[in-house]
Amino acid sequence: MPEPCVVVIEDEPQIRLFLRAALTGQGYRLFETGTGEDGLVEVASRQPDVVIVDLGLPDIDGLEVIARLREWSTVPIIVLSARGQEQDKIKALDAGADDYLSKPFGIGELLARMRVALRHRAHVDRDSAESTLTVGDLHIDLGRRRVLIQGAEVHLTPIEYRLLATLVRHAGKVITHRRLLHEVWGPNAGDQSHYLRVYMAHLRRKLEKDSARPRHLVTEPGVGYRLLTE
Amino acid sequence: MPEPCVVVIEDEPQIRLFLRAALTGQGYRLFETGTGEDGLVEVASRQPDVVIVDLGLPDIDGLEVIARLREWSTVPIIVLSARGQEQDKIKALDAGADDYLSKPFGIGELLARMRVALRHRAHVDRDSAESTLTVGDLHIDLGRRRVLIQGAEVHLTPIEYRLLATLVRHAGKVITHRRLLHEVWGPNAGDQSHYLRVYMAHLRRKLEKDSARPRHLVTEPGVGYRLLTE
DNA sequence: GCCTCATGTCAAGAAACGGTCAAGATCGAG
DNA sequence: CTCGATCTTGACCGTTTCTTGACATGAGGC
Predict the structure, then answer these.
(1) Is B171 in contact with B183 (CB distance < 8 Å)?
(2) Number of Cα atoms under 13 Å in the Cβ half of residue B34
(3) Tens digits of per-residue pLDDT, B62-100?
(4) CA of B155 vs C1' of D8, distance in Å?
(5) DSSP for B73-128?
(6) Is the CB of residue A185 inside 7 Å of nucleic acid strand D?
(7) What is this structure's pTM?
(8) Which residues from chain B sit within 8 angstroms of residue A144, using beta carbons?
């Protein structure tokens, strides 16, 4: 995940300063607003990975900010509040917040709870995201562990698949014999590059029309192999 | 969601009493254990909707309980702890916990945070898996815990059902032997892939017309099994 | 042309893997 | 306690997959 994005809705300048220092230091992309109304707009336009909101805002009640966010967004919401009463926490959490920290809080704890929130989001995303590659008539779906050639499923043995998957993960780039052996046969494979020749032959027989003139799995003599991406 | 199920891993009798009163009063189905090892087994067998774990257990460190749960389960974990140091919180959250309450805590807050956890789970479940799946003549209703083949109900034993349910939850994708064993037999199953063979045979006999040529439950040699969705 | 090195092809034995059956062991209900 | 259902475990067998060796091919240097 490149640079998770955070919207902070907080009016106290001191806390904003504090958050800005901590969060940018951790590599977060940070957007700040001082009012609830602005905050709602900011979340809508930035589509952040997590929202931090103070309950004591000058314009709208923090609880209402949460409720209005929840009408259309499932972004994780972490509440900061000067009030530590149990009733306040319950109301905020039931309004749709995911976590609640009473001031004063440690920055380490906030960061840890943000990591929890990001983990949740990542989890939801992972299932929907698919890592798949299509090159000409060859289609590889790493998520489902399937390989299609001209729409027909090809059965690969575990080693064949691991070899192909390694090439796919570095598609377009050369991978050395050494590296392939290491990733497919494990660290004790040494320099048995014989294995590679045998299995590249297997893959070509299954995936290439003319295995003497490979269009996908090409040899880089003396170096390694490469999966062409065009 | 009918009667959410909670596993409590806690050794202090006083707190157990407290939790029991509060949670059963709210309509939770409650299972308690006093040690980490028992807790892991209990979570595996009960498949709860949320887990509450105390960090100060007599046998294993609470952090390790969390880490070992996270090897195979994504169930929400709420940590209770007598220690309120920031470092403790950070470690537990980074180990995979979803929330952290320092004792003494209010029961209302705990209940609110449990509602948050259940909300998350409902969300993830809804996204990743329909509660009912129909493929050809096979119909599976996870909500009602019923399996129909050509409209006729099939009786499955608990393990058979859990195995099928795990495959359904990841329908279309390959699930490794290791993962299936973890999710069905619990964390101590090791690599007894023998179990899998026996039970896949049972399922096929009940669900496939020709168990030698399965149309739903297919083997991915050397890797795992897959429930076909087409 | 001929030699050599890196690579590709083929096939056979060995090893691992998965499917099946059935005999104990265990558990829970009556 | 007894019975039946369910789970665990062991043995067996056929098949797939991996490893290994022998040999073929082909490009580049002499």
Answers:
(1) no
(2) 8
(3) 999 999 888 778 889 999 999 889 999 999 999 999 999
(4) 21
(5) ----EEEEES---HHHHHHHHHHT-SEEEESS--HHHHHHHHHHHHHHHHHHHHHH
(6) yes
(7) 0.71
(8) 172-174
